[in-house]
Write the C-alpha cells for this entry.
Amino acid sequence: MSGYILAIDQGTTSTRSMIFDHEMHIVGVAQQEFTQHFPDSGWVEHDADEIWQSVVSTIEKAIAAAKIRMSDVTAIGITNQRETVVVWDRATGKPAHRAIVWQDRRTARFCDELKQKGLEPLFTQKTGLLLDPYFSGTKLSWLLKNVDALKARAEKGEICFGTVDSWLIYKLTGGKVHATDATNASRTLIYDIGENRFDDELLSILEIPRAMLPEVKDCADDFGITDPAILGAAIPILGVAGDQQAAVIGNACFEPGMMKSTYGTGCFALLNTGPDRVASSNRLLTTIAYRMNGETTYALEGSIFIAGAAVQWLRDQMGFVKVASETDALAGKADPHQRVYLVPAFTGLGAPHWDADARGAIFGLTRGTGPAEFARAVLESVAYQTHDLLEAMKKDWNGSASRTVLRVDGGMVASDWTMQRLADILAAPVDRPVVLETTVLGAAWLAGSRAGLWPDQKGFAATWKRDRRFEPEMEAGEREAAIVGWQDSVSRCLTNR
Ligand SMILES: Nc1ncnc2c1ncn2[C@@H]1O[C@H](COP(=O)(O)OP(=O)(O)O)[C@@H](O)[C@H]1O
Ligand SMILES: O=P(O)(O)OC[C@H](O)CO
C-alpha cells in the first residue's frame, strides 16, 4: 500500500517536519530553529507567526527531500512543545501577543498567592498538576489581565486560546477548526482529567472565559482538513499529542508499568499507569498519557527542566567543548577520585522539588578540577535527577516502577557514557531504541493508524526495536555514596526546604 504520513514536531527551540513512507521509514526531514525572546528576567516568549512560518517552510522542504508531492500525503500528525500559550484573533488569525513559553516564570508570585489561599489541593485533585508557572493556566490569566481589551474580546468569543497544537490546527485548516487533544488539554491547569472537560470552578478562579477554549478531542481523531490554499492539497489532520506523550506512544509504552524518559533540552519521564489515575504523594504530576476511542490512559510524570541544556551550557557559556558529542569522551577522562556535583537548577528545579527560586551550583571543586570533571558532572546530573524521579515513582506506584526497564529517547541518548551512568545510578537496565525520533514517530503513528495505513497498537508495538541495552555495572557501595553526595548537593540549593 502506498501513501505517506507527514508528522510535524513543533519543539521549544526548533520545528521539524518528517515524511514517513507506508513502512514507517523516514524518507524526508527538514528542521528549522526560530527566535527565543527573553523580554525580562525569567520570561521566555515565541513569535507564534514565526512558529507558523517555520512549520510551512519545513513541510515544504521535507516534501522536497522525500521527492513527493503534497497530494501524496495521506494524513498529518502533530506533536508539540506543551503548556506554551497562544492567543489569537478568531476572525483574522492574528496573534494577540507573543506566545508565553512553558519555561517562563512570570507567574511565580501569582502561583504563590493561589497557594497561600489554600487552592493547590483543588487544582491538583482536578488537573493532576501543581500550582507552578510551568503550566498554561496562570500564563493565560496573566495575558487576560495585561493585554488591553483581551478579556472583553475573549468573553465575546473573538479571541481563541490554544497550546501550540491548537494554533497549528487553526492555521492549517484556514481558521476552520479550533481544537486540541486530551494530552495537551491535560497540561493547561484548567482541565479536569477525570471528567475530561474544562472545569468551571478553575476557570472562574483564573478568570478565563470559556468562550476562548478549544474543543478537546482524542489523540487519534478528526482535526480537520488542511486548506489547499496553504499547502496545495487538502489533507486530513488525524493525530495530535503533546511531545512527551507522543514519545510514550512512539516508544510503544502501551502497558501499565512501562516507562520512557526523553532527554532533550529538559528531561521528562512518564510511567504508564493504565486506566488508573494515580495521585502522587511525592510531587509528581498525574497526566493523560493518551486518549484513544474515548478511553483515557494516565501517566505519572516527572519533569526536569535542564538536561541537554546543561550540555549546551558547557559548550556555549563555559567553552569546554565545541560540540555536544565531545562531552562523552571528555567525561570518560575525568579523575575517578574527584567527586564533583553540578546541580543544574538554572531555571529553578522541577520534580520532585518544584523550587522556582533555586539556582544552580557546583560542589566538590579542588585544585585539580578541570573540563573533564565538569563534563562528567553535567552528564551525571541527568542520571541523578532521573534517579530522584524514579524513586518518587516507586513510592507512588506500589513499587512496580522498580521492575520496569526504562526506554529512553531524545538527542542526549546518543551519549553512551551518559546512558551507562544512567543504568549505573538507577541500578536498572536502560533500553535505547533504534529509532531515536520516537516523539515524531508517535505523532505519525496516531495519524497513520487512524488513516488505516499503519498497523494497530499491538502491531506497532511489535515493531519497536532495541539498539542497545545498558546494564548496571557500578558496585553498590560506590553507587550509594555517589547518590548521597548528590542529594546533599541538591539540599544545599533548595530555597523551599
Ligand atoms: N552526543 C551528545 N551528548 C550529550 N548531549 C547531547 C548529545 N547530542 C545532543 N545532545 C544534547 O541534546 C539536546 C538536543 O536534543 P533534542 O532531542 O533535539 O532536544 P529538543 O527537542 O528539546 O530541542 C541538546 O541540549 C544537546 O546539548
Ligand atoms: O520542546 P521540548 O522537547 O523541549 O519539550 C518541551 C515539553 O513539552 C515541555 O513540557
Notes: The pocket of SN-glycerol-3-phosphate (ligand 2) is lined by residues 11-12, 81-83, 102, 242-244, 264-266 (CB under 6 Å). The domain at 252-433+465-497 is CATH 3.30.420.40 (Nucleotidyltransferase; domain 5).
